[in-house]
Design goal:
The protein is α/β, with parallel strands linked by helices. The protein has one domain: TIM Barrel, CATH 3.20.20.30. It is globular.
């Protein structure tokens, strides 16, 4: 995940889930992805849940399936899960699926963002112990990395037996695809610092991001890792409009309709970039000052008009590359 000029990279979230009762449209997703790549965005990120919601369930296109489609309909842009609920996935099957997608996409394009999950009903439906999800996360990550990198895998893990197991082909990316971990409590931040390539956040303000990122870097140094080698991605809602007030109303309604911002986490609608392009640039500068390297914009209503305004109006204000070349 190499950074661009001034360490700044820019991606877009993909609408692979929708509020009830709309259904995600794969052709629209692919068209959106191709346009994002043509405009020079650096990355595309899909959301992950197997199921979500009961009275008003969210229709979800499965994350890895969508990435496979994007892998063969784009050529350059990085493709990430933001984030994969790792305990719900059989790690051997996941190793096969992600290795295949990495081959479809080509070296360096796949980024596997992952977390322990939070929606208990989803765990119940999949037969996974919600209370044990942290340990299962650690187990699955270890097995996943072994099948990505080892020629032959021998051993056992919770009923899975590996007897000189060979899985081919390996990922195109050597030694493995990039791994980011999401989460906010100190135990998870230590995991980010010691078990991954970096951190992926969900709707954090610049202040919240800065506090946690400082912790992660400190945990890495304590563990003997080079903290400067860690990378991060910040998912941020955005609405560009003619005034702050108009954009604020739209951004808050969008977050309320599409997303969960639990009171026990640091995610908040206040993280949204909103207002004129100049106001959004000022807000974005605070995130860069806090240490953000790679921004995943979540455009208001996933409108291509917003994507075009981000590219045409906002990025030239915050990234010198856009002024001189117009590409990522």
């Amino acid at each position: 995940m190499t950074a661009g000029v001034d360490g700044r990279r820019f991606g877009l979230a993909i609408e692979n889930f929708t509020p009830h009762a709309r259904i995600p449209d794969m052709e629209r997703i692919l068209s959106y992805g191709r346009r994002a790549e043509a405009l020079g965005f650096d990355s595309l990120w899909v959301w992950d849940h197997i199921l979500l919601g009961s009275k008003f369930p969210f229709p979800f296109l499965e994350a890895l399936s969508v990435l496979a489609g994007l892998a063969i309909s784009t050529r350059r842009v990085q493709l990430g899960t933001g984030i994969l609920v790792l305990p719900l996935r059989n790690p051997v099957v996941l190793a096969k699926a992600t290795s295949s997608i990495d081959r479809m996409a080509g070296p360096g394009r796949l980024v596997v963002g992952m977390a322990s999950g939070w929606y208990e009903r989803e765990f119940e439906a999949c037969g996974v112990d919600f209370a044990d999800r942290g340990r299962i996360f650690e187990r699955n990550l270890e097995v996943l990395e072994r099948f990505w990198t080892e020629e032959r895998v021998t051993g056992a893990a919770d009923g899975m037996t590996f007897n000189n197991a060979v899985m081919l082909p390996k990922p195109a990316t050597s030694p493995r695809p990039a791994v980011l971990i999401g989460g906010y409590v100190d135990k998870v931040l230590r995991r980010v610092a010691t078990r991954s390539d970096g951190w992926l956040t969900y709707f954090y303000t610049a202040e919240s991001f800065g506090r946690a990122w400082t912790k992660i870097r400190g945990f890495a140094e304590q563990a003997g890792r080079d903290s400067s080698a860690l990378v991060n991605v910040a998912q941020l809602p955005i609405c560009i409009d003619e005034s702050f007030e108009a954009a604020d109303r739209k951004a808050r309604a969008f977050v309320a309709e599409y997303f969960d911002v639990a009171a026990w986490s640091e995610s908040t609608p206040d993280s949204a970039l909103r207002g004129t392009a100049e106001q959004c640039a000022d807000q974005l500068a605070a995130h860069f000052d806090a240490g953000v390297q790679h921004v995943c914009f979540v455009p208001w209503n996933y409108e291509l008009e917003q994507v075009e305004r981000i590219h045409d109006e906002l990025l030239p204000l915050v990234d010198p590359r856009r002024v001189t070349t117009g590409v990522g």
